[in-house]
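Q: Structure tokens for this one, please.
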Amino acid sequence: MHQYIVFGGPLASGKTTLARLLSAHLEAELVLEKVGRHPLIADFYRDPEAYALEAELIFTIMHYHDIARVLRGRRFKGDVVSDLFFDGIEAYSSFTLSANDRGTFIPLFKSLQKRIPTPTHVYFLSASTEFLMKRVRNRGRDYESKMTFEYLDGVNRAFTRFIEGYKRAPVTRLDPEEMDHKPRAELLKLLEPTLTKRI
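A: Here is the predicted structure, written as tokens:
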């Protein structure tokens, strides 16, 4: 069976960098999240409460499409590495959505979740909110300029709670703060479980 390796965690934790690194090493297909295409992303970060349900619905459909595109008409033909942790949408929604809106959202999410493969391995990147906020500011994306520390901290805490109870795939925790500025060879060594154990 081919590997479907996913990097999960809050934004700015380094998922995309590691997904690119591992996919190149394994010569695997790379599936990346495309947050900048979201039509409401700037509005959402400016006023998360007002745009929460619409933003989550759009994110979910976009993420499902990006994974389903790889599957359309066939199963995975080789290993796939992604920074798009579809299951992690549940963590975001547990923080951003009211109980009433979650009642609307979760059935759609669960229905789409059943249509895509479960990851064979998840790397979860866990860092302090201060570290993540610094990265958000340093990368200077316009649509993230209105993001508050309180919002990012809430997402970070929600992800930590979520991953503690996550049972759908094996999880390896990584610390982006310890990995910061490490050379490629050292980063690959930290990903050793999927480099040495073919599923």
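A few notes: The first strand starts at residue 4 and ends at 8. Residues 36 and 59 are 11 Å apart (CA to CA).
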